[in-house]
Amino acid sequence: MNNRHYSKEEIIQSTPRTGFFGHPKGLSTLFLTEFWERFSYYGMKAILAYYIYYSVSKGGFGIDQGLALQIVSIYGALVYMSGVIGGWIADRITGTRHALFYGGILIMIGHILLSLPSNFTLLLVALLFLIVGTGLLKPNISSTVGLLYEKNDPRLDSAFTIFYMSINLGALLSPLIIGWLQVNVGFHAGFAVAAVGMFVGLVIYFITNKKYLGLAGIEIPDPLSKKEKKTITIITAIIVVICAIVCVILALFGKLTLPNFANFISLLGILLPIYYFVKITTSKKTQDFERSRVFAYIPLFIAAVAFWMIQEQGSTVLAQFADTKTELSMANLTGGLIDFQIPAAWFQSLNPFFIILLAPIFSTIWVKLGRFNPPTVYKFVIGVCFAGLSYIIMVIPLSSDAGLINPFWLFASFLLVTVGELCISPIALSTTTKLAPQAFTAQMMSVWFLSNAMAQGINAQMVKIYTSISSNDYFLYSGIIAIVIGILLLIASPKIKSLMVGVK
């Protein structure tokens, strides 16, 4: 690993400054690597729940649907939690370039394991590889993009927009391809394509990274001292031993079960953000006006959790709903005109499709509104309320006596939640940076990503409710709760804006 410090000028001069739509060529390396990583991630996740709860005769494990959806939620929560650790490893041990490459290798191994006929234990091992690998790659590839540009480079916003498109293009195409393979060939073919996708991304990265990325991400920003390495090794060993002892004790008493593990992850997802907020607000490094801004951020964080809870159920609750309660036969929908069975996984492409379609429109709207552009708090209110509406709208078809519902309703639900996402997600990244105390800028960004981890941790419990009550009641009450949170945020907005101390 490289412990030498490079100046920003040295890094900039080491990279080809043009060659990719007017941007540094290194952006093309990161764009294609991220595209294939997201292709593999979203494609696998689109069929994961089905793989777990489908009967053995259909290529699955035949596990209870509620537990299957819990596993997918746990997986999502751990992916976002692992990003915090992945960022720390890059900052203190490997540098971003090595971290994202090692992460890609682990992701590829995980997909390869999924592509093999296997038992349930091997499935869990594969998911572990994917969790650790994504935690290493996801936060560090985004950081490397920023290293290619001067701080005030006018192309920087455009660069992240292009990079963001790689995410959504991968998320759009992979469920279509992998979902079709799952239906027509089998689950393992779909997982194999995800593995090949990550392999392609790694090959592109391996061939082009030295030439196009130069010195970006090579150095270790804050390397561990020998004393720190010894301390970290001891602490890690102690944690491993304690975990092993706890697992053995739980196993002896028959408590080492997936539902209990889900409960633990749900609790961890709640405690981690609380820990960060307490740490930041009580630190002597945080000035009084910065502390006020953090207090303003907390209700926005809670609203974001409420939003992500609904948005992330697209791969659990709505995935199961598409598979079991939606009319997927085009022959039935068109009166025999078209003979085609819609793969249930295809609905997972709707969110990225709408983002690609609507993001430029929303970006233009915010600019055109000028001084009438809604404050951050109002945008969060709009986002959470649209998420609530995306569930309440599902009550309409469920109120009839019809058996399977028309796919239009899922289409409409995904459209509404995407509108909400465009009001929250891009705005939140900027707001998090603005409200972060100077000493905790990076950790506040970790807190933002933990909003998703917390949401999916709570979802691990919500899916049990979904499978135990009527779909009508679940969508209605979930939607109402989200809208109530939005209304409470609106009522509190004057106080929140005053706590922001000059930040809009």
Question: Main attributes?
Answer:
504 residues, mainly alpha, Growth Hormone, Chain: A, two-stranded antiparallel sheet, 18 helices, 76% helix, 1% strand, POT_fam, cell membrane, transport
Quick structural gist:
The chain has 504 residues and is mainly alpha-helical. It has helices spanning 8-13, 26-53, 65-94, 96-115, 120-147, 156-184, 187-213, 226-252, 258-282, 288-311, 317-324, 330-333, 350-369, 376-392, 395-398, 407-435, 441-466, 471-499; strands at 19-20, 23-24.
Structure description:
The chain has 504 residues and is mostly helical. The protein folds into two domains: 1-223, MFS general substrate transporter like domains (Growth Hormone, Chain: A, Up-down Bundle), CATH 1.20.1250; 273-504, Growth Hormone, Chain: A. Helix content is 76%, strand content 1%. Strands 1-2 form a two-stranded antiparallel ribbon. Strand 1 and strand 2 form a beta hairpin. The longest helix has 30 residues, at 65-94. The protein is globular, with a radius of gyration of 23 Å. It starts with 7 loop residues before the first helix and ends in a 5-residue tail after the last helix. The model has no long low-confidence stretch (mean pLDDT 90).
CATH architecture of the largest domain: Up-down Bundle
**Strand order across the largest sheet:** 1-2
Q: In the CATH hierarchy, what is the class of the largest domain?
A: Mainly Alpha
Output the helix-strand order. HEEHHHHHHHHHHHHHHHHH
Membrane topology: Multi-pass membrane protein
Keywords: Cell membrane, Membrane, Transmembrane, Transmembrane helix, Transport
Pfam families: PTR2 (PF00854)
Subcellular location: Cell membrane; Membrane
